[in-house]
Design a protein that fits this description.
single chain, alpha+beta, Phosphoribosyl-aminoimidazole Synthetase, Chain A, domain 2, 3 domains, seven-stranded mixed beta sheet, 8 helices, 23% strand, globular, binds magnesium ion
Length: 342
């Protein structure tokens, strides 16, 4: 039985509170939400959707503290731009503009800063979303680690689109856009110096274009979410609990590259628990699901899209049919801190 989060055994913030698993969820639900509670925040989707002058505006923010700041397939700047674009896209929104707040540690080489800012500019230009406002702060050596970036974003939700983690319904198909665990493995293997995983690169990518194509194929998509911190396991559990449904998935349908799978085995980590930065999960009404998958496969970021499971009536749990034919409950990662993965 877990005690209250503010008990005497853990009077301070732990790294695990930032890992995207059970401890993160408890921090938000038991300490943050009781104070900050309101109708917009209580939805707990990737972006809030506000009514503004007749339009529906999606609004989101995210902070990036990834270590190392440069990694195979990307860097902290690219990640900060893509991550916020993706949180807007997961509300079905077309991104309009981003903000960027930089927190710099004294001693950060200016060449590193320039490389990161150039990468942010390139990512924003490629996605067609301007960085419209920003802020820069510098703190003393040791008061931060090299560079932290906060990005916020606004987007417009098209008429007729109503996507939320609360909208999953029994009968929906669960669609996954591509192979999982690549970002998490790229970060962890760089930290651990595992050369055998060198073919794993972060999948960091902007998914708004893919989402726009998916909504054109099926405007009634119920839910979208990018399985970042906490991985596919945390995301599916969030959707099950927000929509009060059971989600059944099939392990043989979930793509994991050979390199990522062997890295996970050696690191003793479940690929379902590892962060992705260019992958999405969709809950789609069955009649539109095949059209959505076909559309996704025609897009560069959805070539390996497939249906990996079904939404059922029942307790909010996630059940996976394993490769050997058994069934297991997919739990939210806990007690396994993977700090500073994004
Ligand atoms: Mg997200």
């Amino acid at each position: 039985m877990e005690g209250p989060i503010l008990d005497k055994r853990s009077p301070a913030v732990l790294l695990d509170h930032g890992s995207g698993g059970r401890a993160s969820r408890r921090l938000v639900e038991e300490l943050l939400l009781p104070h900050l509670k309101n109708d917009l925040l209580d939805r707990m989707d990737d972006a809030a959707v506000l009514q503004a002058g007749g339009a529906r505006l999606a609004f989101t923010t995210d902070s990036y503290v990834v270590d190392p700041i440069f990694f195979p397939g990307g860097d902290i700047g690219m990640l900060a731009v893509h991550g916020t674009i993706n949180d807007l896209a997961m509300a079905g929104a077309r991104p309009v503009a981003l903000s960027a707040g930089l927190i710099l540690e004294e001693g950060l080489p200016l060449a590193d800063l320039e490389r990161i800012v150039a990468s942010m500019a390139k990512a924003a230009a490629n996605a067609g979303v301007p960085i419209a406002t920003g802020d820069t702060k510098v703190v003393a050596r040791g008061a931060a680690d090299k560079i932290f970036i906060n990005t916020a974003g606004i987007g417009l939700v098209p008429d007729g689109v109503d996507v939320s983690g609360h909208h999953g319904r029994a009968g929906d198909c669960v669609i996954l856009s591509g192979p999982i665990a690549e970002h998490g493995v790229a970060i962890l293997s760089t930290r651990a110096g595992l050369s055998f995983a060198s073919s794993c690169r972060s999948d960091s990518a902007p998914l708004a274009g893919l989402v726009a194509d998916m909504l054109a194929a099926c405007p009634s998509i119920h839910s979208l979410r990018d399985p970042t911190r906490g991985g596919l396991a945390a995301t599916l559990n969030e959707l099950a609990s927000q929509s009060h449904v059971r989600i059944d998935i099939d392990e043989t349908a979930i793509p994991v590259s050979e390199a990522a799978a062997s890295a996970c085995e050696i690191l003793g980590i479940d690929p379902l628990h590892l962060a992705n930065e260019g992958v999405l999960v969709a809950l789609v009404p069955e009649p539109g699901a095949v059209a959505v998958v076909d559309t996704m496969r025609a897009h560069p970021y959805g070539r390996q899209a497939r249906i990996i499971g079904r939404v059922l009536e029942g307790e909010p749990i996630v059940v996976m049919k394993t490769v050997i034919g058994g069934k297991r409950i997919v739990s939210v990662p806990s007690g396994q801190p993977l700090p500073r993965i994004c």
